[in-house]
Amino acid sequence: MFDTLNQTFGLLDQLLDDPQFIKDNRTSEKAFSRKRILDFKTVFYCICSSQKRSLHTELSSFLMKASRDIPVFSPQAFSKARYKIHPGAFYAAFRQSAKRFCIEKDLITLHGYRVFAVDGTSLLLPDTPQNRDTFGSCGNAQKTYASASASIFYDVLNDIVIDAVIGRRFSSERKDCYDMIEKTEDASFTSSKKLILLDRGYPSREMYLFLKNHGYQYLVRLQSAVPKAVLDMEGDDNIIIDSRNHSIVKRILKIHLPSGETEYLATNLFDPRYTVEDFYHLYHLRWSIETKYLDIKHKTELEKFTGYRPDGIRQDFYVCLLLLNLSAMLKREAEKRRTKKKESKWVYQISITAVINLMRENMVVLLYGVVPRIPILEKMSEVLKNKRSAIRPGRHSERKRPRTVKRYILNHK
Predict the structure, then answer these.
(1) Which of 224, 356, 400, 409 is deepest in the core (most CB within 10 A)?
(2) pTM of the model
(3) Residue 19, class by beta-carbon neighbours within 10 Å (0-12 exposed, 13-18 middle, 19+ buried)?
(4) Cα 148 to Cα 169: distance, rounded to the nearest angstrom
(5) Any alpha helices (H) in 17-68, and if so which ranges?
(6) Please, what sign has the CA dihedral across residues 381, 385, 386, 392?
(7) Contact between residue 404 and residue 397 where contact means Cβ atoms under 8 Å apart
(8) What DSSP line would sit under 160-187, residue for residue?
(9) Which tens digit of pLDDT belongs to each residue from 224-239?
(10) What does residue 336 show for φ and ψ, rounded to 5 degrees?
(11) How far apart are the C-alpha atoms of 177 and 183, rounded to whole Å?
């Protein structure tokens, strides 16, 4: 039952034993070229197993759980060694987890479509001059702070982060979307039938053509400034040909929200069996990527960075996504084993917070694999059975404005 997770950890272990991988992902030719206390794998796994505590506590915990004869090393030595690993190594590990998850045979689809979403966010960084120069800053006349932009390519039905980008503040989210889609053209990541959900910052003629050329069906929320041709259309479901590019044909849907507002969606799904109501519920699935950012920022505490240089920021970013994919796999298997009560007021699911915390606590043991992983995963599944939370359909709350900026404290040694 836990073959996917077990194989994923095994693949990561093989990757870090590959001399060529180490050679390709060190920041200098001299790094990790001689036998030292802190080798490539030790430093890599130590970063991956962080529970966002003080560095002294983290390293003590790592050495106790590693199940290997690793000599004791100082926080200063670790802080120096971590920047000898290129962030691309962590990106490769994260993508390995996504690829292994995506080849599962029982992935959830909707009418045969894998459903994806892309969205961006901003990240607060340790406020150093180097981070400001590398990533940029934002704020107001009174205060500015280092900040970066990030985007993820997300399978909303299967809870898989397939690709991600971190870069300069106010970078183009559309460009990030193009890059991530091009990097996931491999059939091992997607399928022949794929549908993408995009918010109102993405629609453009270029985007429509790009998605069409890459084999995507799309459902996009139109911007607030709706064209006059759309406003003047009769009924709630119309086919419109772009006046400037006749090869772009869209189905425009008028959605009447409970608040009394009207939203407009554009799609290239022309099947008449899909009604306006169907598209309303389909677009609602995009909310999953918003809750994924809640997991990224708060449940994994990404912005509580363990490194303060740009490479440390990138390392932590991809480690966070690796952790989330591994946690999603664990939750998927634990849900299969959970006994579901027939008579219950609510439908329950295992708490993702509990899954993330448990995965973090056992990450070192699972990564090294000195002890058989399957019994550990079985025990973790048993522990998670009672960590349930109710799913209450239809819940919503108004966005509070202005929103306060929450900063995490940097974990200095």
Answers:
(1) 356
(2) 0.92
(3) exposed
(4) 4
(5) 19-24, 40-48, 55-65
(6) positive
(7) no
(8) EEEEEEEEETT--HHHHHHHHHHHT-ST
(9) 777 777 777 888 888 8
(10) -65, -30
(11) 10
